[in-house]
Design brief:
Number of strands: 2
Radius of gyration: 30 Å
Largest sheet: 2 strands, antiparallel
Structural class: mainly alpha
Order of helices and strands: HHHHEEH
Strand content: 5-15%
Number of helices: 5
Helix content: 55-70%
């Protein structure tokens, strides 16, 4: 059933538009230009941040990956990040340590999952692709970049 709007006596019909249209005159345009120039100057005077803004969820994910890296490592992750930025000899050593960390992440990703076989559950890896490993590495490097290199 469709309801009809009933207009009361003396009530004007409404169309959703403003009661009276607003008009801009030449001086209004000029004053708007002046305000725009002032805004542009204030924007130009503010220094730009050298960091990208990231969401809270991404920051939390990066932090958790960093904690996992520092808790599992038999080396200092801060030194590894700094070694990656230094000379080639220390860089090679740092790359080996990063590879060990990523191997640890893959091995640690084993979780119990339901199975259709003779047993109800079986253990399987949750990290099964190179892309997931790369994302883990990106999150660790992202945290290190924002908290170690930009101090």
């Amino acid at each position: 059933m469709i309801k009809k709007r009933v207009r009361r006596p003396g009530q004007r019909p409404t169309s959703g538009l403003p009661a009276q249209p607003t008009r801009r005159f030449a001086n209004d345009v000029e004053s708007q230009r002046e305000r725009d120039k002032e805004n542009e100057e204030s924007i130009r005077q503010r220094p730009l941040s050298d960091r990208r803004s990231i969401s809270k969820k991404t920051e939390l994910s990066r932090y958790n990956s960093w904690i996992e890296c520092t808790s599992s490592a038999q080396f200092d992750p801060k030194e590894v990040i700094l070694d990656l930025c230094r000379d080639p000899a220390s860089k090679e050593r740092a790359v080996l340590q990063v590879k060990k960390f990523l191997q640890y992440c893959v091995q640690k990703s084993e979780a119990e999952r339901p199975s259709l076989g003779p047993t109800e559950t079986e253990f399987s890896l949750t990290i099964t692709s190179a892309r997931t490993v790369f994302e883990k590495l990106k999150s660790v490097v992202g945290y290190a970049e924002s908290h170690i290199l930009h101090v």
